[in-house]
Amino acid sequence: RYAVRRFSWRGVEATGKSYARDTLARIARSAPETVSDARAPGRLTAPLTEVHYLPAGDEVVARDVKLVSEVDEQGKAVEAPIQLILRDQELVAVDMRKAQVAWTAATGPCYRAAWTRGSLVLAVMRSLRGLDPNTGKERWRRETGYSVRGLSVADGLIYAFVEDLAAGGGILRLVAVDAFTGIELWSRELEPADYNKLSAWRDRVVLHKATFSRRGTSTSVGIYDSFTGQQLQRLPIPTVEEAPPQNVGGIYCVCGADRLRRTRAVLGIDLASGALRWQKTIVGSDPITAMTGDGKQLLVLRGDGSLTTYGARDGGRQHETR
Questions:
Q1: What is the separation of C-alpha 258 from the centre of its chain, rounded to a whole number of angstroms?
Q2: Nearest Cα to 199, choosing from 240, 250, 239?
Q3: Handedness of CA 167, 169, 174, 179 (dihedral sign)
Q4: Is 252 left (phi over 0), alpha (psi -120 to 50) or beta?
């Protein structure tokens, strides 16, 4: 990201490709510092200071756009036929089957998108935009008034977690929008907290929540009705989350650690009822590095290389490899 910013360092300004070349050249020509000029580690004599944002005219900056898609009955994401790349202010759609560019669109900054059959929805600044996924033509646009921090999709509905950064303390909302028309179905204001990991499956929406107080940090999972936005259940989960959660055939599996007790836990939550189906405590200091499932089983990989298989419905241990 340094390639698109201009910096000032000890009176030297540099930007783009010239940053490394010019700075190294100046250092090579300058006299070496004496021992008396040395400082303790962590204390910079001349910290790198960003002067202002300046796109480099001799470079093109490209980055992936986080594209989410619907999940099937087994909880697996349906692969989208395109992938998105933001190249400067232009969105590039790549046809993954043909391995070629399908279309481009001048959208401006876009870092999140959601795909459902027949519709592509972008989060651009403080708006949601519906595009034809085959041509990139804009179908609708809806101003949210808020910064979009998360997107998910299920059964043709887009769920967005948005935050008004300008409001005192920030106003947080969870909204549902029709992916084909842009019509808002409902909007729910959330209490102040740190929210993340938004996902949806069938008629359920899941949103993680962390709150901070003098007593410590508490983390929980909220389950909402996708048609009304009503919160159906909120369940506590381990404070330090490790591997990303997995939806295994409607059982929402989440893991985390209790560093004080040096234990870890894997939980299985039934999305239909919102009830905690099972919880398994794992003793040891090795973290859970990955989880995946095949619709009936949950596979848990730990840092020591051990692999444990649990039944998704009951949490029963079926196999373990060390």
A1: 23
A2: 250
A3: positive
A4: beta
